[in-house]
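Example record for the data management plan.
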Amino acid sequence: MKRKINLLPFVIIALFIFLLNWYVLSGLLVLTSNHFIVPGFWLVLTALAASFFLALRRMASNGMDLFFKSVVHITLILLAAELVVSLILIPGDIYSIFNNGMRSYYWVEFAFFMFFLTVCIFLYGMVFGKYNYRVIRHELEFDDLPDAFDGFTISQISDVHSGSFNNPSAVKRGIELINSQHADLFVFTGDLVNNKAEEILPWISLFSQIKAPYGQFSILGNHDYGDYVQWPAETDKIANLQQLKRYHLELGFDLLLDRHVEIVKGDQKIILAGIENWGIGFGERGDLRKAMTGVKDQDFKILLSHDPSHWEAQVKTFLPKIHLTLSGHTHGMQFGLEAFGIKWSPVKYRYAHWAGIKSENGRVLNINRGFGFLGFSGRIGIWPEVTLITLRKKKR
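Corresponding structural encoding:
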């Protein structure tokens, strides 16, 4: 018996898109009286819709090929630009209702100027923004940090998503930026690939250049398990994960899966632990208790955990106390604004704290904005990040 498909959501979405385009067209007609505008507008829209459905049908056999990515990105950019136009037109139309009932030509002209500006911003994000690497520095103080680790530095990247890269020279600049920080310790907090282990193969020679005196350590993220593609058999999925683990070794990364290591400096140490992905809605695999087996209460502890929802659900109240947790996962949704004292991204409606430092109950969380990109092949306002953390002994 076939499962019934609820068509209502698709009908609502289709109706919304139709009304959105109708409204945008009504604004366009204020600027021009060309008789070919209306049929041309709907012809282009129909062609794009047909291409979109064709791309979806081809995806089962061809995957997310160039045709699929091109159609999806064109659709995304046009929808975003049309939404901007509509949001500008609406207050102008409301104002005109209470005046002469005529739309302001200049206001409509401004709305379509913003349409083209929005398109340009998205194109910038796709060409330049996704490789616009920056270093975010944090200096964190702790009462019980061992004296030998005062000034100890940790570089962190997360969410490489190597299957999305298409510019080796740009990625190389990112690797050089990591190494130029000369951090004592390097950590990678998950999502090396989008779906399959083979995606990292072209990039092993670059990422294996990352070195730190006290080692390079890594964990897995939700995308590393191959949960988002169909496999011929479960054994293929298992083999893919095992191969990915071997690639971590080739990269020179010590993969921490529900275990910890001691980082020793002089006659003092700190604990570095890592767990398998644990995230609400993304698989709760990690075993924090297992990772901390044998760790003493007085030890200074750093945890690598890909999904920040783990910190909210378990880590911030876990005993023994975990001083610092390093996460990623959110990407800052690759879209937002961080300027002029404003810090906003749509991802805040899923994760209240989605980037940077948060402190609570004597514990600290850092969320890296991600080194790569996924889905949308670009970044706008939320740039790819290399984190540099300096540990400090709090002075009394």
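Summary line stored alongside the record: The two ends are 71 Å apart (CA to CA).
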